[in-house]
Amino acid sequence: MFDIAIIGAGINGSALAYFLSKAGKRVAVFDGGGIASGGSGAAGAFISPKIAKGGDLKAISDEAFAFSLEFYNRNFPNFITNSPLLHLSKQQDENEKVRHFKEHTSLHVKSPDKSLLDILEPTCKDYEALYLKESGVVDAQGICKALTESSVFINEDITSLTCKGEYWELNSSHKALHVILATGAYKKLLELPYIKHRGVWGHRIDIKSSTNIPLNIHQFVSISASKNGYAAIGATHNVHYHPQTSKESYDIESGRKEPLERASKTLALKDVQILKDYTGLRSGSNDYIPVIGSLVDTKATVEKLPNITKGEKYPRSEFVYYPHLSMINGTGGYGFVLAPYLASMLSDEILYKKEIDRRLVPVRFFERFVKKGGF
Ligand SMILES: Cc1cc2nc3c(=O)[nH]c(=O)nc-3n(C[C@H](O)[C@H](O)[C@H](O)COP(=O)(O)OP(=O)(O)OC[C@H]3O[C@@H](n4cnc5c(N)ncnc54)[C@H](O)[C@@H]3O)c2cc1C
Protein backbone atom coordinates (compact mmCIF):
# COMPACT_ATOMS: atom_id res chain seq x y z
CA MET A 1 0.00 0.00 0.00
CA PHE A 2 1.39 3.41 -1.02
CA ASP A 3 0.57 6.56 0.91
CA ILE A 4 0.23 8.48 -2.33
CA ALA A 5 -0.20 7.39 -5.97
CA ILE A 6 0.49 10.06 -8.55
CA ILE A 7 -0.87 9.34 -12.03
CA GLY A 8 1.29 11.16 -14.61
CA ALA A 9 5.03 11.80 -14.50
CA GLY A 10 5.12 15.24 -16.13
CA ILE A 11 6.50 18.25 -14.33
CA ASN A 12 3.33 18.64 -12.22
CA GLY A 13 3.25 15.03 -10.99
CA SER A 14 7.04 14.96 -10.55
CA ALA A 15 7.16 18.20 -8.53
CA LEU A 16 4.41 16.94 -6.26
CA ALA A 17 6.23 13.62 -5.82
CA TYR A 18 9.28 15.58 -4.68
CA PHE A 19 7.47 17.49 -1.91
CA LEU A 20 5.47 14.49 -0.66
CA SER A 21 8.38 12.05 -0.61
CA LYS A 22 10.56 14.65 1.08
CA ALA A 23 7.94 14.79 3.86
CA GLY A 24 8.42 11.04 4.38
CA LYS A 25 5.44 9.73 2.38
CA ARG A 26 5.71 6.51 0.38
CA VAL A 27 4.95 7.80 -3.08
CA ALA A 28 4.37 5.89 -6.33
CA VAL A 29 4.38 7.68 -9.69
CA PHE A 30 2.64 5.93 -12.62
CA ASP A 31 3.15 6.71 -16.30
CA GLY A 32 2.95 4.20 -19.14
CA GLY A 33 4.96 6.47 -21.42
CA GLY A 34 7.84 6.92 -18.99
CA ILE A 35 8.97 10.01 -17.08
CA ALA A 36 8.28 13.29 -18.94
CA SER A 37 6.76 11.52 -21.92
CA GLY A 38 3.89 14.03 -22.35
CA GLY A 39 3.91 17.80 -22.76
CA SER A 40 6.73 18.14 -20.23
CA GLY A 41 9.20 16.19 -22.35
CA ALA A 42 8.52 18.51 -25.29
CA ALA A 43 8.91 21.77 -23.38
CA GLY A 44 11.70 24.26 -23.90
CA ALA A 45 11.24 24.71 -20.15
CA PHE A 46 12.02 28.43 -20.07
CA ILE A 47 11.62 29.87 -16.59
CA SER A 48 10.35 33.33 -17.36
CA PRO A 49 7.51 35.50 -16.05
CA LYS A 50 4.20 35.98 -17.84
CA ILE A 51 4.21 39.46 -19.35
CA ALA A 52 0.70 40.77 -18.75
CA LYS A 53 -0.94 43.92 -17.47
CA GLY A 54 -2.70 42.39 -14.49
CA GLY A 55 -5.27 39.83 -13.38
CA ASP A 56 -5.17 36.68 -11.28
CA LEU A 57 -3.05 34.68 -13.71
CA LYS A 58 -0.35 37.33 -13.77
CA ALA A 59 -0.34 37.60 -9.95
CA ILE A 60 -0.06 33.80 -9.59
CA SER A 61 2.61 33.59 -12.32
CA ASP A 62 4.73 36.34 -10.76
CA GLU A 63 4.76 34.56 -7.40
CA ALA A 64 5.39 31.20 -9.05
CA PHE A 65 8.24 32.59 -11.16
CA ALA A 66 10.13 33.90 -8.12
CA PHE A 67 9.42 30.70 -6.15
CA SER A 68 10.45 28.31 -8.92
CA LEU A 69 13.60 30.10 -10.00
CA GLU A 70 14.82 29.96 -6.42
CA PHE A 71 13.59 26.34 -6.01
CA TYR A 72 15.50 25.02 -9.04
CA ASN A 73 18.66 26.95 -8.21
CA ARG A 74 18.69 25.88 -4.56
CA ASN A 75 17.73 22.22 -4.97
CA PHE A 76 18.68 21.30 -8.55
CA PRO A 77 21.43 23.67 -9.70
CA ASN A 78 22.69 21.11 -12.23
CA PHE A 79 19.40 21.15 -14.10
CA ILE A 80 19.02 24.89 -14.64
CA THR A 81 20.98 27.23 -16.91
CA ASN A 82 20.61 30.81 -15.76
CA SER A 83 20.70 33.59 -18.36
CA PRO A 84 19.14 37.02 -18.60
CA LEU A 85 15.98 37.43 -20.63
CA LEU A 86 15.22 39.88 -23.40
CA HIS A 87 11.47 40.07 -23.99
CA LEU A 88 10.02 42.00 -26.93
CA SER A 89 6.42 42.70 -27.81
CA LYS A 90 5.13 40.84 -30.86
CA GLN A 91 3.23 43.73 -32.39
CA GLN A 92 2.84 47.45 -31.95
CA ASP A 93 -0.37 47.15 -29.94
CA GLU A 94 1.44 44.95 -27.41
CA ASN A 95 3.99 47.71 -26.69
CA GLU A 96 1.77 49.21 -24.04
CA LYS A 97 1.48 45.85 -22.23
CA VAL A 98 5.26 45.42 -22.04
CA ARG A 99 5.69 49.05 -20.93
CA HIS A 100 3.05 48.61 -18.24
CA PHE A 101 4.74 45.41 -17.01
CA LYS A 102 8.10 47.17 -16.83
CA GLU A 103 6.63 49.97 -14.76
CA HIS A 104 4.57 47.87 -12.35
CA THR A 105 6.36 44.59 -11.72
CA SER A 106 8.30 43.92 -8.54
CA LEU A 107 10.90 42.00 -10.62
CA HIS A 108 14.15 43.79 -11.46
CA VAL A 109 13.46 44.67 -15.07
CA LYS A 110 14.83 47.53 -17.15
CA SER A 111 15.11 48.63 -20.75
CA PRO A 112 17.86 46.72 -22.56
CA ASP A 113 21.16 48.36 -23.52
CA LYS A 114 21.34 49.50 -27.13
CA SER A 115 24.16 47.03 -27.84
CA LEU A 116 21.77 44.16 -27.15
CA LEU A 117 19.15 45.48 -29.55
CA ASP A 118 21.85 45.82 -32.21
CA ILE A 119 22.15 42.03 -32.49
CA LEU A 120 18.48 41.75 -33.47
CA GLU A 121 16.78 42.23 -36.82
CA PRO A 122 16.31 45.97 -37.56
CA THR A 123 12.47 45.74 -37.39
CA CYS A 124 12.75 44.78 -33.71
CA LYS A 125 13.57 48.41 -32.88
CA ASP A 126 9.86 49.22 -33.36
CA TYR A 127 8.90 46.98 -30.48
CA GLU A 128 8.97 47.62 -26.76
CA ALA A 129 11.64 45.52 -25.04
CA LEU A 130 12.47 44.62 -21.47
CA TYR A 131 15.57 43.10 -19.91
CA LEU A 132 15.37 40.81 -16.89
CA LYS A 133 18.63 39.74 -15.32
CA GLU A 134 17.27 36.58 -13.73
CA SER A 135 15.67 33.91 -15.86
CA GLY A 136 16.59 30.38 -16.85
CA VAL A 137 15.98 27.23 -18.79
CA VAL A 138 15.66 23.86 -17.09
CA ASP A 139 16.50 20.46 -18.52
CA ALA A 140 12.91 19.26 -18.88
CA GLN A 141 13.47 15.50 -18.83
CA GLY A 142 16.35 15.64 -16.37
CA ILE A 143 14.46 17.66 -13.78
CA CYS A 144 11.40 15.38 -13.90
CA LYS A 145 13.67 12.36 -13.33
CA ALA A 146 15.51 14.10 -10.49
CA LEU A 147 12.25 15.16 -8.80
CA THR A 148 10.91 11.60 -8.78
CA GLU A 149 14.14 9.98 -7.56
CA SER A 150 12.85 9.35 -4.03
CA SER A 151 9.54 7.92 -5.26
CA VAL A 152 8.78 4.51 -6.75
CA PHE A 153 8.28 4.95 -10.51
CA ILE A 154 5.92 2.43 -12.12
CA ASN A 155 5.97 2.36 -15.92
CA GLU A 156 2.26 1.60 -16.30
CA ASP A 157 -0.82 3.43 -17.53
CA ILE A 158 -3.69 3.49 -15.08
CA THR A 159 -6.88 2.36 -16.76
CA SER A 160 -9.07 1.77 -13.72
CA LEU A 161 -9.37 3.72 -10.52
CA THR A 162 -11.76 2.48 -7.85
CA CYS A 163 -12.48 3.93 -4.44
CA LYS A 164 -12.54 1.15 -1.84
CA GLY A 165 -13.54 3.36 1.09
CA GLU A 166 -10.30 3.91 3.00
CA TYR A 167 -8.06 3.47 -0.03
CA TRP A 168 -7.99 3.56 -3.85
CA GLU A 169 -7.33 0.61 -6.11
CA LEU A 170 -5.40 1.29 -9.32
CA ASN A 171 -5.56 -1.26 -12.18
CA SER A 172 -6.71 -3.88 -9.63
CA SER A 173 -3.06 -4.36 -8.69
CA HIS A 174 -1.94 -1.29 -6.71
CA LYS A 175 -3.33 0.37 -3.62
CA ALA A 176 -2.87 3.88 -2.26
CA LEU A 177 -4.43 5.97 0.49
CA HIS A 178 -4.48 9.14 -1.63
CA VAL A 179 -4.50 9.55 -5.42
CA ILE A 180 -3.38 12.55 -7.47
CA LEU A 181 -4.46 13.05 -11.08
CA ALA A 182 -1.56 14.74 -12.88
CA THR A 183 -2.47 13.53 -16.34
CA GLY A 184 -2.12 16.77 -18.33
CA ALA A 185 -4.10 16.87 -21.58
CA TYR A 186 -3.54 13.24 -22.42
CA LYS A 187 -6.11 10.83 -21.06
CA LYS A 188 -9.27 11.02 -19.03
CA LEU A 189 -9.61 8.68 -16.09
CA LEU A 190 -12.64 9.98 -14.24
CA GLU A 191 -15.86 11.51 -15.54
CA LEU A 192 -15.60 15.14 -14.44
CA PRO A 193 -18.16 16.94 -16.65
CA TYR A 194 -17.38 20.35 -15.14
CA ILE A 195 -13.65 20.32 -16.00
CA LYS A 196 -12.61 20.73 -19.61
CA HIS A 197 -8.92 20.93 -20.36
CA ARG A 198 -7.87 22.12 -23.80
CA GLY A 199 -4.83 20.47 -25.30
CA VAL A 200 -2.76 22.85 -27.43
CA TRP A 201 -0.16 21.14 -29.58
CA GLY A 202 3.34 22.61 -29.66
CA HIS A 203 6.53 21.95 -31.61
CA ARG A 204 10.00 22.99 -30.57
CA ILE A 205 13.46 22.23 -31.88
CA ASP A 206 17.06 21.96 -30.73
CA ILE A 207 19.46 23.56 -33.18
CA LYS A 208 23.15 24.13 -33.78
CA SER A 209 24.13 27.52 -35.24
CA SER A 210 27.26 29.60 -35.65
CA THR A 211 25.36 32.65 -34.37
CA ASN A 212 26.13 33.44 -30.76
CA ILE A 213 22.92 34.01 -28.76
CA PRO A 214 24.02 35.77 -25.56
CA LEU A 215 20.74 35.51 -23.63
CA ASN A 216 17.22 34.06 -23.73
CA ILE A 217 15.03 35.98 -26.17
CA HIS A 218 11.22 35.86 -26.25
CA GLN A 219 9.27 37.41 -29.06
CA PHE A 220 7.41 35.45 -31.76
CA VAL A 221 8.91 32.32 -30.24
CA SER A 222 11.38 31.64 -27.41
CA ILE A 223 15.07 31.32 -28.27
CA SER A 224 17.48 30.11 -25.61
CA ALA A 225 20.95 31.50 -25.01
CA SER A 226 23.40 29.33 -26.94
CA LYS A 227 25.77 26.94 -25.19
CA ASN A 228 28.71 25.78 -27.35
CA GLY A 229 26.64 26.57 -30.44
CA TYR A 230 23.54 24.69 -29.27
CA ALA A 231 20.19 26.39 -28.60
CA ALA A 232 16.52 25.58 -28.14
CA ILE A 233 13.76 27.26 -30.14
CA GLY A 234 10.10 26.91 -29.30
CA ALA A 235 7.36 26.51 -29.22
CA THR A 236 4.52 26.82 -31.71
CA HIS A 237 0.85 26.94 -30.71
CA ASN A 238 -1.03 24.71 -33.11
CA VAL A 239 -4.75 24.70 -32.31
CA HIS A 240 -5.67 22.71 -35.44
CA TYR A 241 -3.84 19.48 -34.64
CA HIS A 242 -4.66 17.15 -31.75
CA PRO A 243 -3.13 13.65 -31.52
CA GLN A 244 -6.37 12.11 -30.22
CA THR A 245 -8.86 13.71 -32.60
CA SER A 246 -7.08 14.77 -35.81
CA LYS A 247 -7.66 12.51 -38.82
CA GLU A 248 -4.25 13.17 -40.38
CA SER A 249 -0.96 12.51 -38.67
CA TYR A 250 1.27 15.43 -37.73
CA ASP A 251 3.76 16.55 -40.41
CA ILE A 252 7.05 17.03 -38.57
CA GLU A 253 8.87 18.38 -41.65
CA SER A 254 6.52 21.31 -42.19
CA GLY A 255 5.89 21.75 -38.46
CA ARG A 256 9.58 22.43 -37.76
CA LYS A 257 9.67 25.30 -40.25
CA GLU A 258 7.45 27.48 -38.09
CA PRO A 259 9.70 27.88 -35.02
CA LEU A 260 12.64 28.66 -37.32
CA GLU A 261 10.69 31.22 -39.36
CA ARG A 262 9.42 32.87 -36.21
CA ALA A 263 12.88 32.98 -34.65
CA SER A 264 14.37 34.51 -37.80
CA LYS A 265 12.02 37.52 -37.50
CA THR A 266 13.90 38.39 -34.30
CA LEU A 267 17.42 37.18 -34.96
CA ALA A 268 19.31 36.10 -38.09
CA LEU A 269 20.58 32.61 -37.30
CA LYS A 270 23.46 31.40 -39.46
CA ASP A 271 24.44 27.84 -40.46
CA VAL A 272 21.44 26.28 -38.76
CA GLN A 273 21.30 22.55 -38.30
CA ILE A 274 18.15 21.10 -36.75
CA LEU A 275 19.20 18.47 -34.25
CA LYS A 276 15.98 17.28 -32.69
CA ASP A 277 12.22 17.88 -32.81
CA TYR A 278 9.97 17.77 -29.77
CA THR A 279 6.17 17.82 -29.87
CA GLY A 280 3.50 17.63 -27.22
CA LEU A 281 0.32 19.00 -25.71
CA ARG A 282 -0.02 21.80 -23.21
CA SER A 283 -3.07 21.44 -20.98
CA GLY A 284 -4.95 24.67 -20.38
CA SER A 285 -8.02 25.24 -18.23
CA ASN A 286 -11.05 27.22 -19.42
CA ASP A 287 -10.07 30.31 -17.43
CA TYR A 288 -6.31 29.82 -18.07
CA ILE A 289 -5.69 29.51 -14.32
CA PRO A 290 -4.15 26.27 -13.02
CA VAL A 291 -6.25 23.71 -11.15
CA ILE A 292 -5.14 22.16 -7.86
CA GLY A 293 -7.08 20.49 -5.06
CA SER A 294 -10.01 18.18 -4.31
CA LEU A 295 -12.59 17.14 -6.87
CA VAL A 296 -16.37 17.26 -6.56
CA ASP A 297 -18.15 13.95 -7.20
CA THR A 298 -20.98 15.15 -9.47
CA LYS A 299 -23.19 12.05 -9.12
CA ALA A 300 -22.94 11.88 -5.32
CA THR A 301 -23.54 15.64 -5.03
CA VAL A 302 -26.72 15.42 -7.14
CA GLU A 303 -27.93 12.53 -4.98
CA LYS A 304 -27.35 14.58 -1.83
CA LEU A 305 -28.59 17.92 -3.22
CA PRO A 306 -31.11 17.11 -5.99
CA ASN A 307 -32.18 20.75 -6.38
CA ILE A 308 -28.69 21.60 -7.55
CA THR A 309 -29.78 20.37 -11.01
CA LYS A 310 -32.34 23.23 -11.02
CA GLY A 311 -29.58 25.74 -10.33
CA GLU A 312 -30.07 26.05 -6.55
CA LYS A 313 -26.99 27.47 -4.87
CA TYR A 314 -25.09 25.74 -2.04
CA PRO A 315 -21.89 26.57 -0.19
CA ARG A 316 -18.78 24.68 -1.31
CA SER A 317 -18.77 22.73 1.97
CA GLU A 318 -22.11 21.09 1.07
CA PHE A 319 -20.83 19.42 -2.09
CA VAL A 320 -19.64 15.80 -1.95
CA TYR A 321 -15.92 15.44 -2.78
CA TYR A 322 -14.13 12.27 -3.84
CA PRO A 323 -12.28 11.09 -0.73
CA HIS A 324 -8.50 11.47 -0.82
CA LEU A 325 -8.35 12.43 -4.47
CA SER A 326 -6.71 15.59 -5.85
CA MET A 327 -5.80 17.12 -9.18
CA ILE A 328 -2.89 19.21 -10.41
CA ASN A 329 -3.32 20.40 -13.98
CA GLY A 330 -4.06 23.33 -16.30
CA THR A 331 -0.60 24.92 -16.32
CA GLY A 332 -0.81 25.78 -20.04
CA GLY A 333 2.46 27.10 -21.46
CA TYR A 334 3.98 27.76 -18.02
CA GLY A 335 4.18 24.33 -16.39
CA PHE A 336 7.86 24.56 -15.47
CA VAL A 337 7.31 27.98 -13.93
CA LEU A 338 4.16 27.00 -12.04
CA ALA A 339 4.72 23.37 -11.01
CA PRO A 340 7.07 23.74 -7.98
CA TYR A 341 4.92 26.54 -6.57
CA LEU A 342 1.63 24.68 -7.09
CA ALA A 343 3.03 21.35 -5.91
CA SER A 344 4.32 22.93 -2.72
CA MET A 345 0.85 24.39 -2.07
CA LEU A 346 -0.96 21.13 -2.83
CA SER A 347 1.40 19.07 -0.69
CA ASP A 348 0.80 21.49 2.22
CA GLU A 349 -2.93 20.90 1.83
CA ILE A 350 -2.56 17.11 1.70
CA LEU A 351 -0.08 16.93 4.58
CA TYR A 352 -1.18 19.78 6.87
CA LYS A 353 -4.72 20.69 5.66
CA LYS A 354 -3.48 24.15 4.70
CA GLU A 355 -6.13 25.86 2.63
CA ILE A 356 -5.41 26.36 -1.09
CA ASP A 357 -5.86 29.77 -2.71
CA ARG A 358 -9.56 29.93 -3.75
CA ARG A 359 -8.62 31.01 -7.27
CA LEU A 360 -6.93 27.66 -7.93
CA VAL A 361 -9.36 25.04 -6.62
CA PRO A 362 -11.30 22.84 -9.10
CA VAL A 363 -14.62 23.45 -7.31
CA ARG A 364 -14.80 26.84 -9.06
CA PHE A 365 -15.60 24.99 -12.29
CA PHE A 366 -18.31 22.95 -10.58
CA GLU A 367 -19.99 26.16 -9.37
CA ARG A 368 -19.89 27.61 -12.91
CA PHE A 369 -21.25 24.33 -14.28
CA VAL A 370 -24.22 24.50 -11.85
CA LYS A 371 -24.83 28.19 -12.65
CA LYS A 372 -24.93 27.48 -16.38
CA GLY A 373 -27.38 24.58 -15.88
CA GLY A 374 -24.82 22.07 -17.13
CA PHE A 375 -26.72 18.94 -15.92
C1 LIG B 1 6.15 22.32 -27.03
C2 LIG B 1 5.94 22.83 -25.64
C3 LIG B 1 6.79 23.83 -25.13
C4 LIG B 1 6.60 24.30 -23.83
N1 LIG B 1 7.47 25.23 -23.31
C5 LIG B 1 7.37 25.61 -22.01
C6 LIG B 1 8.31 26.52 -21.44
O1 LIG B 1 9.22 26.98 -22.10
N2 LIG B 1 8.17 26.83 -20.12
C7 LIG B 1 7.16 26.33 -19.35
O2 LIG B 1 7.10 26.66 -18.16
N3 LIG B 1 6.25 25.48 -19.88
C8 LIG B 1 6.32 25.11 -21.18
N4 LIG B 1 5.40 24.28 -21.72
C9 LIG B 1 4.26 23.89 -20.92
C10 LIG B 1 4.58 22.74 -19.98
O3 LIG B 1 5.32 21.78 -20.68
C11 LIG B 1 3.26 22.14 -19.46
O4 LIG B 1 2.56 23.12 -18.74
C12 LIG B 1 3.59 20.95 -18.58
O5 LIG B 1 4.29 19.99 -19.33
C13 LIG B 1 2.35 20.32 -18.01
O6 LIG B 1 2.79 19.27 -17.20
P1 LIG B 1 1.83 18.14 -16.73
O7 LIG B 1 2.61 17.32 -15.76
O8 LIG B 1 0.53 18.71 -16.28
O9 LIG B 1 1.46 17.33 -18.07
P2 LIG B 1 2.32 16.34 -18.97
O10 LIG B 1 3.73 16.67 -19.03
O11 LIG B 1 1.59 16.21 -20.24
O12 LIG B 1 2.24 14.98 -18.14
C14 LIG B 1 1.10 14.21 -18.02
C15 LIG B 1 1.55 12.76 -18.01
O13 LIG B 1 0.45 11.96 -17.60
C16 LIG B 1 0.59 10.73 -18.25
N5 LIG B 1 -0.73 10.08 -18.19
C17 LIG B 1 -1.90 10.53 -18.68
N6 LIG B 1 -2.89 9.65 -18.40
C18 LIG B 1 -2.31 8.64 -17.71
C19 LIG B 1 -2.81 7.43 -17.15
N7 LIG B 1 -4.09 7.10 -17.24
N8 LIG B 1 -1.94 6.61 -16.51
C20 LIG B 1 -0.63 6.95 -16.40
N9 LIG B 1 -0.11 8.07 -16.91
C21 LIG B 1 -0.94 8.90 -17.56
C22 LIG B 1 1.04 11.09 -19.66
O14 LIG B 1 1.69 9.99 -20.28
C23 LIG B 1 1.98 12.26 -19.39
O15 LIG B 1 3.34 11.85 -19.32
C24 LIG B 1 5.55 23.79 -23.03
C25 LIG B 1 4.71 22.80 -23.54
C26 LIG B 1 4.90 22.32 -24.83
C27 LIG B 1 4.00 21.24 -25.35
Structural topology:
Layout: E1 2-7, H1 11-22, E2 27-30, H2 39-42, E3 46-47, H3 56-75, E4 80-82, E5 85-88, H4 95-104, E6 109-110, H5 114-117, E7 129-132, E8 136-138, H6 140-147, E9 152-154, E10 161-163, E11 168-170, E12 174-181, E13 198-208, E14 216-218, E15 222-223, E16 230-234, H7 252-255, H8 257-264, E17 273-284, E18 291-296, H9 298-304, E19 321-329, H10 335-352, H11 363-371
Parallel strand pairs: 1-2, 1-12, 2-9, 5-14, 12-19
Antiparallel strand pairs: 3-8, 4-8, 5-7, 6-7, 10-11, 11-12, 13-16, 13-17, 14-15, 15-16, 18-19
The chain binds flavin-adenine dinucleotide.
Description of the structure:
With 375 residues, this protein is α+β, with helices and mostly antiparallel strands. Helix content is 28%, strand content 25%. It contains 11 helices and 19 strands. It has helices at 11-22, 39-42, 56-75, 95-104, 114-117, 140-147, 252-255, 257-264, 298-304, 335-352, 363-371; strands spanning 2-7, 27-30, 46-47, 80-82, 85-88, 109-110, 129-132, 136-138, 152-154, 161-163, 168-170, 174-181, 198-208, 216-218, 222-223, 230-234, 273-284, 291-296, 321-329. Strands 1, 2, 9, 10, 11, 12, 18 and 19 form an 8-stranded mixed beta sheet that branches. Strands 6-7-5-14-15-16-13-17 form an 8-stranded mixed beta sheet, with helices on both faces. Helix 1 (11-22) runs parallel beside helix 6 and helix 1 packs parallel to helix 10. The longest helix is centred in the N-terminal third of the chain and has 20 residues, at 56-75. The mean pLDDT is 94. Bound molecules: flavin-adenine dinucleotide. Residues 7-13, 30-33, 37-40, 42-46, 157-158, 182-184, 186-187, 189, 202, 204, 222, 234-235, 280-283, 329, 331-337 line the site of flavin-adenine dinucleotide.
